[in-house]
Amino acid sequence: MAKNLKQLVDSPVRLTGGHRLCPGCGEPIAVRQVLMGTDSPVIVANATGCLEVSTTIFPYTAWNVPWVHIAFENAAAAASGVEAMYESLKKQGKIDADADYKFVAFAGDGGTYDIGFQSLSGAVERGHNFVYVCLNNQAYMNTGVQRSSASPLGMNTTTTPAGKVQAGKTKVQKDLTECLVAHEIPYVAQSIPGRWRDLVGKAEKAFNVDGPAFLNVLTPCPLGWACDPAVTAEISMLAVDTCIWPLYEVEYGEYKVNYTPKEKKPVDEYLKLQGRFRHLFKGEEGAEVRKQIQEYTDRKWEQLLKKAGQA
Amino acid sequence: MGKVMPLEGNNAVAEAMRQINPDVVAAYPITPSTEIVQTFAKFHANGQVDTNFVAVESEHSAMSACTAAAVAGGRVMNATSSQGLALMWEILFITASLRQPVVLSVANRALSGNINIHCDHSDGMGARDCGWIQLYGENAQEAYDNCIQAIAIAEREDVRLPTMNCFDGFLVSHAYELVEVEEDAAVKDWVGPYKAVRPLLDVKNPYTVGPLDLWDYYFEHKRNQIEAYVAAKEAIIEEGKRFGKVFGREYGLMECVDLEDAELAIVALGSTAGMVKDTVSELREAGKKVGLLKLRSFRPFPDAEIAAALKNCKAVAILDRAASYGAAAGPLYAEVTSALYAHKAEVPCVNMIYGLGGREVQPEQLVDIYKALEDVKSSGQPAQPVRFVGIRE
Ligand SMILES: Cc1ncc(C[n+]2csc(CCOP(=O)(O)OP(=O)(O)O)c2C)c(N)n1
Ligand code: SF4
Asked: What does DSSP assign to residue B344?
């Protein structure tokens, strides 16, 4: 990574304080780190979701960079439109030929894994030069913690509630990172806000490749995860240490695992800190689901190590 | 001097787009508008335009990308029909709310279901409240002329509203006509260069577009949008005149044929108006006092002008090529009669719903409509004003 901590701290503030996201929300932390990944002018497209509604309540805005929101499912299409105009005007000499503007789309997991999947897939296939960042809090938080296809097995959401005969969500999450790898774009990576060096470094790479890049960032949500707002960074690091959310990147198809825990922690350590999994610590059925989560996590981790040639 | 060319409506529009040379076109194909995009893609592939042509994966993304591209700060155009327009619906509102002068050519086609590729106006009418200006053209010449004027109208600083260039699918989009195509330079000149208003790409002056807008400001923003339509009406008239001065074909909010002394009148949109013109001249030769009001600007809806044009008629038939399910009558009827009421023009009216899903309209049917108006004239406002033309009973 090119910049040291001091330089990062001195980076221009592109998303200011005074927004109205919840205390401890992982989203603004991830956004700031991503935007530290480039010194070039950057233009943001944002999908509908917590980040959008909480940072732009008219007539206020927390953004110090050009920012556009069109709708929920189209952050990728909106970013393609802005980028297409930039390319057009640049080619026509209406924008300085040396200009090096960067484009980034931010969307929640709902706006990425579900309703926005088509526009994301289309935009990256067309090869627009932009970075797409999924702020993945594993549910639709802005509308009240409904399940998305990023919600993990066993999660208590308002549409997969933990009840007498059902222990939260009954299916595992979609592996969207791998879907994006299958699009054969230049750069795909997973990260967390807890390891800023990893995230800023990946953002830097993503901004610098020629073509689309995708970052899937696990962003804890104290409200929807029912966890202590003070431990956002720690929880995301536990996700990494349990291998529930491995840090890895795929450059032009080449896998690299960026972090291998010295001692892989049991998933329970991660699950038990969060109210969204509380029901899994009661009764036999809960124990069974936790076992499934552990097995699933182990299997995915082994597969990843194989892909990276480390197993 | 331009030249007269045999062109299909779609190619006439593509020609206009080539001459306008927009900065971005993002589109997705759908019958019967597909050829516009295909022809334009060829112009692009041959280097005849500077456009960044983006072949997106859906109409939803087409309108999203077009809206964002316009926000970024350049001229943007696009084309669609039917389900494509319906899929854009969510974003059409946003284009208008963000006051982006995107121009969309719509080859009108019936909406599903059942699936039908032929002409009616259900797509255009479905989108009528999205905040776009809607011009309806009669033939390929008007599709071409309206495409050029749409740019000028949409981009006026007092207007800044997206504009639809509507014309009948197949009947215009696929029919060869002799079209007067103006010189490239003359069109370029007439349209003028694009003047961006607060482009997003002006990175030195960052601002936030499309924020959360709650009860404390949203209403005022909507009011501004409503009032932009007042300016839009003026713009349509002025740009229509300016177009006439340079190219010899003048346009307005509507076209009145033999209405001054007409007792019986038809109100129509699109290609049917062309047929009505012929019927009017035939019946006039036979001494009948008949006339036509061809509406060009459906949004803004020129209510006072329509009422003034029809106020001396004794009976009026309003032709709707779309239904409004559960409403008392078709959409055009509802709007024309409310205009008459508001402007105290007491004229008995009937609603003729016709041509859905491409059902052909025969000249004899138009003659029959004027005949039916004779009865309405003598008996007054009918209790059942909605009738169906050319339908199996
Ligand atoms: C077409 C459409 N459907 C539904 C909504 C309602 N809606 C707004 S935000 C949202 C969920 C956002 O969830 P996510 O993308 O995960 O972002 P988060 O709020 O969790 O950051 C939903 C369902 C909408 N705005 N548009
Ligand atoms: S609900 Fe969750 S994602 Fe939304 S602002 Fe609060 S903490 Fe952040």
From this structure: T
pLDDT tens sequence across A16-59: 999 999 999 999 999 999 999 999 999 999 999 999 999 999 99
Q: Is A287 helix (H, G, I), strand (E, B) or coil?
A: helix
**DSSP-based three-state secondary structure for B248:** coil
Strand partners, A190: A216, A248
> Does ipTM top 0.85?
yes
In our burial notation (b when 16+ CB lie closer than 10 A, e otherwise), range B187-219 reads beebbeebebeebbbebeebebbbbbbeeeeee
Ligand 1 proximity of A142 Cβ (cutoff 6 Å): yes
Tell whether ligand 1 has an atom less than 6 A from the beta carbon of residue A225: no
Q: Residue B308: how many CB atoms within 10 A of its CB?
A: 15
Interchain proximity B64–A118, CB inside 8 Å: no
Instruction: Answer yes or no: are the C-beta atoms of A137 and A225 closer than 8 Å.
Output: yes
Q: Cβ-count burial of A231 within 10 angstroms (0-12 exposed, 13-18 middle, 19+ buried)? A: middle
Using CB atoms, which residue from B52, B208, B210 is nearest to A70? B210
The tokens describing B155, both together, are: 């981009």
Give the residues across from B165 on adjacent strands.
Answer: B105, B135
Pocket test for ligand 1, best of A52, A53, A143, A151 (most atoms within 8 A of CB): A143
| Ligand 1 geometric centre to CA of A82 (Å) | 22
pTM (2 d.p.): 0.98
By CB atoms closer than 10 A (0-12, 13-18, 19+), residue B382 is middle
State the Cα–Cα distance between residues A211 and A46, nearest whole angstrom. Answer: 19
Report pLDDT digits (tens) over B31-66. 999 999 999 999 999 999 999 999 999 999 999 999
- φ, ψ of residue A289 to 5 degrees: the values are -65, -40
- Long-range CB contacts (< 8 A, 24+ apart) of A250-255? A250/A181, A250/A187, A250/A188, A250/A189, A251/A186, A251/A187, A251/A205, A251/A209, A252/A186, A252/A187, A253/A181, A253/A184, A255/A304, A255/A307, A255/A308, A255/A309
Query: CA–CA separation, B265 vs B60, rounded Å?
Result: 40
Indicate the residue type of B183.
E
Distances (CA, A) of A258 to A190, B76, B131: 10, 43, 50
- Cis omega before residue B6 (within 30°)? no
The answer to whether the beta carbons of residues B71 and B98 sit under 8 Å apart is: yes
Q: Of all helices (H) and strands (E), which one includes residue A161?
A: none
Please give the pLDDT value at position A1.
53
CB contact at 8 A, A134 and A176: yes
Q: How many Å lie between the alpha carbon of B202 and the closest alpha carbon of chain A? A: 8
Minimal Cβ distance to A68: which of B57, B210, B216? B210
* pLDDT tens, position by position, A88-136: 999 999 999 899 999 999 999 999 999 999 999 999 999 999 999 999 9
Q: Rounded distance, CA A49 to CA B35, Å?
A: 37
List, in order, residues 6 or more apart from A172 with CB less than 8 Å away.
A152, A153, A296
Distance CA A159, CA A148 (A): 9
